[in-house]
Amino acid sequence: MEDSKIIDLYLNRDESAISHTADKYGSMLRSVSKRITGDAEEAEECVNDTYLEAWNRIPPSKPRDYFPAFLSRIVRNISINRCVQRERLKRKAFITELSEEMEQCIPSSDNVESRIDEMEFGRLISGFLCKQSEEKRKVFIRRYYYLDTVTQIAEEFGCSESKVKTQLFRLRNELRKYLEREGYEI
Question: What Rg value do the Cα atoms of the chain yield, rounded?
Answer without folding.
Answer: 18
